[in-house]
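Standup notes
- HV: blocked on the assembly model, inputs below
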Amino acid sequence: MNNKQLKLADLAKLAGVSTSTVSRALNDNPLIKKETRDKLKQLAKQHNFSLNTAASRLRSQKTNVVAVIINFDSGTEQSINDPFLLKVVGEINLALNKQGLELLLSNSFMAGDDWANYFINSRRADGIIVVGQGKDPTNIEAAAAAGVPLVVWGDPKTPSNYPIVGSDNFVGGRLATEHLLAAGAKKILFLGDPGHAEIGERYRGYLAAITTAKATPHVVSIDITSRAAYQGINQLLVEKGLCFDGIMACSDMVALGAMKALKERYISIPNDVALVGFDDIAMADISHPSLSSIKQNTQQASVILVEKLLAQLQGHSAESQVIEIELVNRQSSKR
Amino acid sequence: MNNKQLKLADLAKLAGVSTSTVSRALNDNPLIKKETRDKLKQLAKQHNFSLNTAASRLRSQKTNVVAVIINFDSGTEQSINDPFLLKVVGEINLALNKQGLELLLSNSFMAGDDWANYFINSRRADGIIVVGQGKDPTNIEAAAAAGVPLVVWGDPKTPSNYPIVGSDNFVGGRLATEHLLAAGAKKILFLGDPGHAEIGERYRGYLAAITTAKATPHVVSIDITSRAAYQGINQLLVEKGLCFDGIMACSDMVALGAMKALKERYISIPNDVALVGFDDIAMADISHPSLSSIKQNTQQASVILVEKLLAQLQGHSAESQVIEIELVNRQSSKR
DNA sequence: AAAATAATTGCAAACGTTTGCATAAAGTTC
DNA sequence: GAACTTTATGCAAACGTTTGCAATTATTTT
């Protein structure tokens, strides 16, 4: 670092113009003549100048920062290490950057309950992206009601006064289940907790397919972790034996947990039990047998999330939107 | 949001004191009488007040923000979706929060090459945590030379003028290899790119164990992705057949890719080929057979990273530090 | 009880931008 | 070439905190 940090005024003196001119030039304001703008920008680069964002934010009341909150339920073991959620965060980061926005990573611990206050009133960020609806929408609703620019990754069919972007979980659940039925499965388990918003929709999709096929639904309600899935399936096998021939898992991690329990008992996948997951994480392709899954287009979703947030920042409103999903057919469900 | 955003001055008027008093009270400055402090804090809470961080940062020249840069090599396919790197980011987030610091998530795309300038001069953050050394240390070195408070997650044995915190990769590589040798493997592959700092150390550990055992080293240099590993092993099997009986993989994702290639050809793990990974990600435990791995204590490392950054922020210096590692013995290497 | 000390609080000047308005320079029209 | 428009720049006032120093009040000492 230089012994003295350059500021706008210094740069202005160097160039023999006023600070306003430099400020406008660096912000590419067309009020300033093109040549002057270019000259000043080059000078800034030459001297390694960079604007003091604190001052800029104070004066302009804009931060160009978006807070991303990973929204865990307090009751779950699902952690910040959940690969799918982190993947979504990664994609959002990319999408934000492409719009010149920065990402303040946060969680319920840091932000407390009053998000409007913590992020917006304090000028930490201009808007909020919430990853995951969680079981309890209170905080989200409060923030939205306070007029905070806000978008949520979750189930877009949930009625809400804020835009939710996410996959069509109902259709996903139905597709997965129909696929299992088509593969010849008669007794298909739903593995996951229907109390959770997105998973609930998947469950209803499952239910729709099952009832259409006049089969009997069967839920094994567990936490969204592979460990819980492993234990759940293990216990079921111990207590009741192999009483099913298909599993629709609420996530890939859960599916992989189940897969392990089955493989340990030499239950063949897909011959004895056909298996479909949800999310299409990297591991789905690399597991053996590879895991059929409902692919969520997180990249597209992230771009749309950011677009909708941007719209709100510019005073427009935005609606929930469903992202297309796709069944990725792999070995775990092939008959 | 209220129609009028409360500021310090308003709160002061409400309480009948000066702004300085409120400011000090909220910052828990002992200059202010305890009762007054408590009273004012309560008043602030009551009115849902929160400080304007932009103003506060401008005046105090401190942001309480730490930039975290995920440092990818341009030549690799390793992406922001890499579960291990994201796990580290998650842990760092927790460790930062515990110290009242916030996390600005960034990457080389946003930050450009001049990190000192982009993050520090601009007052976006007080310090930087770099996740991953990458192949080219230029940017890191430049930032450190500029006097930026900086810590790096990487290989702590790398000579540097900035503190690096990370696992003892050499010992990890040696342990893993010795473990494979002890399991009876004679021809052990090293699967990974030794040109990368951390992986290079793992490779040298491997080499040390191999030469001590008077065996022959054999490197399959691939990118750090499971896909590359899958293809690499596949190709090797096609071209030369099963010419090895052990694999020391440079990461778990790589190991899992290799595992898939082996399983597809009905090569038994661990009987035909014993396999050890590195990182101990969640999937290691849930794969089948479960994957032996060198566990990196990312949580402890994150806490230490933050401590060392904090030390620098307070003007002290900090040294590189080695984090203990541990072999987690699972099925993939059992004989 | 005056003097000295300690404990509280207030005043006012920063921090470094951005931006409405005024001004100066250049170009256009009649 | 005067009057007007257009284009380019500068002036100076915010934005909402924090903090050195001064001022006030309460406490102790002599």
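- HV (later): unblocked. Chain B touches chain A through 64 residues (CB under 8 Å). Residues 187 and 244 of chain B are 5 Å apart (CA to CA).
- Next: hand off to the docking folks.
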